[in-house]
Design a protein that fits this description.
With about 170 residues, this protein is mainly β. It has a single domain, classed as Lipid/polyisoprenoid-binding, YceI-like (Lipocalin), CATH 2.40.128. Helices cover about 5% and strands about 60% of the residues. Strands 1, 2, 3, 4, 5, 6, 7, 8 and 9 form a 9-stranded antiparallel sheet that branches. This is Polyisoprenoid-binding protein YceI.
């Protein structure tokens, strides 16, 4: 059994997010600050990475003032409380084939999240991609959720949001 640690290359790793509402969707990016991946005999067995919530960007709103207003709202207590919680974490708890089980912590609240990943190990280079679907209400993000507010009409924001994760790591 050979354990190997790979350090996340933050400049080559990223998360694309999509949040949907009745009238459409918004999308953007958020940065992976740092982390590590653990391989045992060339197979993914664990790891953890830290997400820089303050790096959240909105890509679909081109008007600077509107974009800044929306970014401020995402940073507020209605959503990610970035001032109080500048980081989120994803810790891999188990891997079976391409199925990754993990603990996701947002706003200090942790829940298990499973997802399928495409994993590639080539010598000292590790790459992986995966799509996570997260129920925001489990993390105290209830703004305009139909589970908590009535008569929202076309202002309703769906509870699930998507994180499309792309990670590159190099052997330490």
């Amino acid at each position: 059994m050979k354990n190997q640690t790979f350090e996340i290359v933050s400049t080559q790793s990223n998360i694309d997010w999509v949040g949907k509402k009745v009238t459409g969707a918004h999308n953007g990016t958020i940065a992976i600050k740092e982390g590590e991946i653990i391989l045992n005999d060339g197979k993914l067995t664990g790891g953890k990475f830290i997400i820089d919530t303050a790096s959240i960007k909105i890509l679909d709103i081109t008007d600077a003032a509107t974009n800044a207003q929306f970014a401020g709202h995402l940073a507020s207590d209605d959503f990610f409380s970035i001032e109080k919680y500048p980081e989120a974490t994803l810790a891999i708890t188990s891997v079976s084939g391409n199925r990754v089980e993990s603990d996701l912590t947002i706003k200090g609240i942790t829940h298990p999240v499973g997802f399928d990943a495409v994993i590639n190990v080539n010598g000292d280079l590790f790459t992986a991609t995966g799509k996570l679907v997260i129920d925001r209400t489990k993390y105290g993000i209830k703004f305009r959720s139909g589970n908590f507010f009535k008569d929202l009409g076309d202002t309703l924001i769906y509870n699930d949001f998507e994180l499309n994760v792309s990670v590159t790591a190099k052997a330490a």
